[in-house]
Design brief:
The chain is an alpha/beta fold and 134 residues long. The chain is globular. Strands 1, 2, 3, 4, 5 and 6 form a 6-stranded parallel sheet that branches. The chain contains 4 helices and 6 strands; from the N terminus they run βαββαβαββα. 41% of the residues are buried.
Length: 134
Amino acid sequence: MKTAVIYWSATGNTEAMAKAVAEGAGVEAVAVSDFSGSIAELDTVAFGCPAMGDEVLEESEFDPFFTSIEGELGGKKVVLFGSYGWGDGEWMRSWAERVKAAGAELIGGEGYIANDAPSDDDIEKLKALGSQLA
């Protein structure tokens, strides 16, 4: 089974989450700017992006990437995760709806969110979530 963990992070919070998911899945986490693979070739994929602005995905790099591969998610198992500092998680709910509308199966509920830096408990839960991808 081919798995990838792809993320965007400004402060390091979502990067720490990505590394935990990747450890659980037995793969390396890859920043979206460094991802050169093909989503079509993957069986499972985890995406990480924090809430930005008015509770949206990061708009200059991550959202354009995600929009470009959204049509390739049908039939794949997907995990979503990210950190936030305000709001109530609306960006994650909207993102989960996009993934489901693309025909993917969400693993671990509607996405995993951590308020600011992930706690030790968050890291352990993210590792377990990653193991569900492997």
